[in-house]
Amino acid sequence: MRRPSPLPQPPVASRGTAEAGASKRATRNQGDAEDLTGARGEPTPNPLESAGRPREASPDAAETDAAALASGPGSDDTDPAPVIPLTPGLAGAPKPLPGNTSSEGAKPAEAADDADGPSAGEVGFREVWKAARARRKALRAEVRRFTVRQRRRRAVWVGAAASVLFLALGTVGAAYSPLFGVEKISVVGAQQLAEDDVAAALSGQLGTPLPLVDESAVKAELIAFPLIETYALEARPPHELVVRIVERTPIGLVETRAGYTLVDAAGVALSTTATPSAGTPLLTITGGVDSDAFTAAGQVMRSLPADIRAQVTEVTASTPDDVTLSLGGTNTQVVWGSAENSADKAVALQATMAARPPSDVYSYDVSSPQAVVVR
């Protein structure tokens, strides 16, 4: 008898497939048995009857069944391989017996229940908050570690700026405080005016901080001095106020109804006397102090050197182009012409008078400084 060759293990089938296969094999074995019985001349049993009573065992039937089982599924190539159904106990984990109530069998179940319980996997709000706080703290530490140079450089700049600002505020605060109040007033540039008179007029500024000196009040006080043409204030910390003034230069006397008025080149009246002052020229100007002729005469007098201006006794002009000067007791005339090129004309006149003194000359014509005419 040939031994059947082993077949590969079929895949595990489901419960329904296993039951169907078992039923099919039972039906096929029953049919084979009926065929063998019919071949021997025995009557075919009724399936319904055979299902109700046990099958009688006979030696021939036993041999036939044994031969059929021996041939097995391997003898028929068309029959599928037997499928062994899986019991519920084999599919899952082994279960304890109902009667087993020992503590050793209950421990794994209790441990599993404890592991799967609601308290094992739950995370409370407190734990979440602590984790978030720790994460933020670690992030801040990393940021501080990587920005240490930038923060140090920023601190240096902020410190320098704060120092400069503090110094500036301190200086300004001290300057506007009584620590820098005016205690002394000095007048510079006064020749015809008395310095003490000007300083006394500005005494109202004493005690005032230097940056807070009222310039409008100073101007109102200095207007009372006609000889002051311009002025400038200078603060000398900690307590000195310097007033620099430029006095007006008188050019002569203008005869008026009140007497003789001393005027400067701008026609500003400086003083008035009943009689003419000695050493001051008399101005005979057509049109008065508001005319163009007076303006030209004033420019001529301001351009003269001090030694020649001291010798002038009279200035006459009817137009801006015919200014004439009279010198000393010799009554020598200086024909000046217009006020143009007055500086060159003054230099030429000074050189000519040094060569030929006024005592020997009737007139000097310097209207053309390049060609001086002496008579």
Q: Topology of this structure?
A:
Layout lengths: L14 H25 L7 H6 L6 H13 L16 H4 L11 H13 L2 H4 L3 H22 L1 H28 L8 E5 L6 H7 L13 H8 L5 E9 L3 E8 L2 E7 L2 E6 L4 E5 L8 E4 L6 H12 L2 H4 L2 E6 L5 E5 L4 E6 L4 H14 L7 E3 L7 E2 L1
Parallel strand pairs: 1-3, 7-8, 10-11
Antiparallel strand pairs: 2-3, 4-5, 5-6, 8-9, 9-10, 11-12
> How far from one another are the termini?
180 Å
Beta-strand content = 15-25%
What average pLDDT do the residues reach? 77
Query: How many strands in all?
Result: 12
State the share of residues found in helices, binned by percent.
40-55%
Would you identify the regions where 5 or more consecutive residues have pLDDT less than 50? 35-79, 86-118
Q: What structural class do helix, strand and pairing data support?
A: alpha/beta
Strand order of the largest sheet: 7-8-9-10-11-12
Number of continuous helical runs = 13
Query: What would the principal axes of the Cα set say about the shape?
Result: elongated
Computed CA radius of gyration, to the nearest angstrom: 70 Å
Q: What letter string, H or E per element, gives the SSE order?
A: HHHHHHHHEHHEEEEEEHHEEEHEE
Give the oligomer, counting copies of the same chain as homo and different chains as hetero.
single chain
Biggest β-sheet strands, sense, barrel: 6 strands, mixed
